[in-house]
Amino acid sequence: MSRSARPSLRGVRTAERGEARLIHETKLRVRYSETDAQGIVNNANYLSYFEVGRVEWLRAAGLSYKELERQGYGFVVAEVSAFYKKPAFFDDELTLSTEIVESKRASFSFGYRLFRNGEVIATGSTRHACVELATGKPRRVPEELGARVFGGQP
Amino acid sequence: MSRSARPSLRGVRTAERGEARLIHETKLRVRYSETDAQGIVNNANYLSYFEVGRVEWLRAAGLSYKELERQGYGFVVAEVSAFYKKPAFFDDELTLSTEIVESKRASFSFGYRLFRNGEVIATGSTRHACVELATGKPRRVPEELGARVFGGQP
Amino acid sequence: MSRSARPSLRGVRTAERGEARLIHETKLRVRYSETDAQGIVNNANYLSYFEVGRVEWLRAAGLSYKELERQGYGFVVAEVSAFYKKPAFFDDELTLSTEIVESKRASFSFGYRLFRNGEVIATGSTRHACVELATGKPRRVPEELGARVFGGQP
Amino acid sequence: MSRSARPSLRGVRTAERGEARLIHETKLRVRYSETDAQGIVNNANYLSYFEVGRVEWLRAAGLSYKELERQGYGFVVAEVSAFYKKPAFFDDELTLSTEIVESKRASFSFGYRLFRNGEVIATGSTRHACVELATGKPRRVPEELGARVFGGQP
């Protein structure tokens, strides 16, 4: 497995949808503070990993979540799920694979797979709504974002 | 809504299963460190709230998770889901309602509803397997625990 | 030790300064997510405890930090120290004692003592500056706050 | 500033002690979950950064904290201090510089400086005692560790 911390980005043409799908891989090293008294990564911290994954996915897609916020938009988390197959331990080197699994007018979903040495140890997904930060009101995903990220169909 | 920090415990006889169902309510005050730059509670922290909820549920049922660990057993999280309906803010007083929603031989599930002023702002569930801590191997839920908590049918 | 979750507030007249000193006690129950793989509360989480302590201190003094923020002010942390004497474990019931230990024109300090069964297991302090949230610029502590909390001498 | 995620390690001969001093630099990207409602990194999370810094310092020195734990030893945190000069924001790229600033028979201290674009935004230190994990009793730093890390004088 490559040890680079630089984002790797693979454009995969999927037969079903006839469009390029970006799958982004982020490297994570388990921090001591992320473990709990069971000696393993606490279940809540996987959601923080997923959050890192989607920020890095956006960056790899040429978008900065920080810039999006500066423009007055944000993504709120509407739904999460996680499946824990094997525990993760302090100092483990994990690879988080992130991709968009669904996109609609005002919401979209990311899917995540967490690997250790090529083996999937957890999976998950998050669904997000785009909101105007000032009001918290749902908004269509900004056009530029939609076009660049979702191929124009959000 | 009662403001007591003492656990409240309601035994509800459910028609479908003909057995008592314990629903436990825990009060939580949102800490500043639990918020993020969106000004709301970060999505990952709901899983820590759920964790508090099930520890308190067990205590209300006469069981100490700490004692369970001393006997060499633990519950590992196999699966979580959460649905975020309204954001929670710093200093909000929340009520977390926890109950067992499913129990099987070697796994069981908790359901959660998070309220603010009587309104549900989030729901979720977690599925757990019972393991022997020394080996990490799945084990049947210890009999005493099963009998007291799940009415003998885990 | 009293088990009430309601804030207890003691006014102590200190000889040196001839003024009432508020000491506020907050109860905390150690959450599983606050422990780490050493089986004890991770050192970073004590700072979150301290944060809870000063929010509750302010509330006991008749001030809401949330309200202060609504008025456009906030306290930034300039400095922290913590001394760990005994480890804290999952499910421990702790009492956090918080008081103002110094107040100046534009900054003030809280002192903390964390107890388990009447024994001090950690101490610490934090120094804060008052800032205008919009600009991040240092500001004098708002007069009303100063008067009520620090006896008019901040 | 180099952007490599690989540890950089500089051996600096210090006049006062006539020995090589290892200064290790770790890159950190601020996660969304590390911010709070002030829009900046919550003060407690700096201690988790410091923890990452000393784990990476040890690795750069040829030691694995994980391996140390396997041998039955651990470092407990006895004392921390942190000084916050400038806030850190979501997505900031930070460089954490870690070094040993003191070593004694049974305890030693790390010093930390956190940089953004070459500017120090925070500093801190932590003091640690070496303990036998099974008993929690203080122990001399294991000889091999002492020799490799502290030049034989712990």
UniProtKB/TrEMBL annotation, chains A, B, C, D:
GO molecular function annotations of the record: fatty acyl-CoA hydrolase activity
InterPro entries named among the record's database cross-references: 4-hydroxybenzoyl-CoA_TE (IPR050563), HotDog_dom_sf (IPR029069), YbgC/YbaW (IPR006684)
UniProt keywords, alphabetically: Hydrolase
Top-rank taxon: Bacteria
PANTHER family in the cross-refs: 4-HYDROXYBENZOYL-COA THIOESTERASE FAMILY MEMBER, NOVEL THIOESTERASE SUPERFAMILY DOMAIN AND SAPOSIN A-TYPE DOMAIN CONTAINING PROTEIN (0610012H03RIK)
NCBIfam families, sorted: YbgC/FadM family acyl-CoA thioesterase
Family: Belongs to the 4-hydroxybenzoyl-CoA thioesterase family.
The protein's name: 4-hydroxybenzoyl-CoA thioesterase family active site
